[in-house]
Amino acid sequence: MIPHNARSSVTRGAACPSILGLGHYLPVDTITNLDLASLVDTSDEWITSRTGIHSRHRAGVAEATSDLAIIASRRALADAQLDPGQIDLVILATATPDAPVPATASTVQHALRADRAGAMDLNAGCSGFLYGLHTAEAFIRSGSAEHVLLIGADTLTRVTDYKDRRTCVLFGDGAGACVIAAKGFMQVIYSSVGCDGSQADLICIPAGGSRLPSSVKTIEDRQHYLQLDGSRVFRQAVRRMVESAREALDACGLAASDIAWVIPHQANERILSAVAEKLEIPIPKVVIDVAETGNTSAASVPIALDRARASAHFEPGQLILLVAFGAGLTWACQILRYAPLAETNA
Questions:
Q1: How confident is the model at residue 1 (pLDDT cuts 50, 70, 90)?
Q2: Residue 11 located in a structural domain
Q3: Which residue among the candidates 24, 57, 134, 265 is catalytic per the annotation?
Q4: Residue 96, Cβ neighbours under 10 Å: how many?
Q5: Catalytically annotated residue among 126, 168, 178, 333
Q6: Same structural domain for residues 218 and 300?
């Protein structure tokens, strides 16, 4: 079962906070498995068989996390048919900000000319976008905001150790964004978050903070790169996503068969397949978008959600389960109801 520190909410009826607009951006540059094979002792067959990843996008030399976030945000605002001046709050979920201070969300807010909006960063690792959706949903429900711009954006290739073949095959860069409002085409009918801080060492960047400030030694020891314990992460990822999904279904009085689509954090294909098997959800109902994007951390769920919508995967009334895990150790889950605006406003 989910530990007692998990927090959840169930909303029923027409007053569900909803996604009003979606957008994403993937950088032009790519890193293929063959590229990686020229850097470390690996091969296309080895990477594909273990991760399902063939290539991943990489931010250009002049591109920072904010640049990716800004493009995705503009696309989400256009989809929502909103002016930036109508945004009340900008939430940027990221583990790779432009700089420690100020919050990268401030840079995004200024670039968009969202002059009325507050802005803040949120770091829950790969669970970041779902944590942000949990937060945005609460702002809308409470009446504290009318429109929230939520972004998941990361440039993990900037903190990837390309001498470590265990991790360098996984990560790519990207951004996904959405506008949350009182009415939209995807209603948030359930939301939960959780954390087990006793396992914070599973996924980390050891140096660069107040505990271990940057020094010549930390640089020489490569402690500014993302580190993870692969086998432990696999076990915890499957466990936490399955448990949080089951908790969501129970809270809403649903069975796994009621879910039309599952959109999990795109960590790697083996994790996603294991989650689907334990939930007894057929693989064709699981959106697996990792082959050409890699693990884009907080960006992975909104990118997959936007691409699935663009591919006409969804039909009115269908239920969509979002689930993620990440550094911390964090996890989160939402259930959405696809309700096109014509139906919502009927």
A1: very low
A2: no
A3: 265
A4: 22
A5: 126
A6: yes
